[in-house]
Amino acid sequence: MSKGLSLGFFLMQNTRLNTLVSTIGQQIRQELRNPWRRIAVLVIALLFGIYAGISFAAIAGQLAYIDIIGAGLVLLLTELVSWIFYRNWGNAHKALWAEALNAFKLGLIYGLFLIAFMLGS
Asked: How crowded is residue 2: how many other Cβ atoms within 10 Å of its Cβ?
C-alpha cells in the first residue's frame, strides 16, 4: 500500500460543515487560552464532579442492588483518569480536556466522601 493512498483515505472533503466545525473549534481553543477562562472551565468541571458524586450516591442508595457494581465502575473510572493524567509520556498535564477530566474525578471523589461523612458511615 502506498503512502499517498493511506493518507488520502483519512482526509475529509472540505465541505461547508467541515469548515464551520473546524472554525468554531479554533475559536473555542483560542478563547480557552485565557488563564481565567481556563480556571473557570476547571472549576465548572470540579463542581459538576461533586454534583455527579452526590447524585450517584443517592441513586445507588435507592437502588440497593447495584452498590457493588457502581463502586467498581467508579473505581475503574477514577483509575483510568489517573492513568491518563499522571502517566509519564504525553502532555496530558497541559491539555485542557485532561485537566478538566481530572478535576471532574476529584469532584466525584469529594462528593462521595461528603455523602459518606454526612451519613456517618
From this structure: 7
Record the pTM.
0.74
Closest Cα partner for 86 from 70, 71, 106, 72?
A: 106
Q: What is the pLDDT of residues 28-42, one digit of tens each?
A: 888 888 889 889 999
Total count of domains within the chain = 1
Burial of 8 (0-12, 13-18, 19+ CB in 10 A): exposed
Domain membership flag for residue 100: yes
Q: Average pLDDT over the chain, rounded to whole?
A: 83
**Does a structural domain hold residue 22?**
no
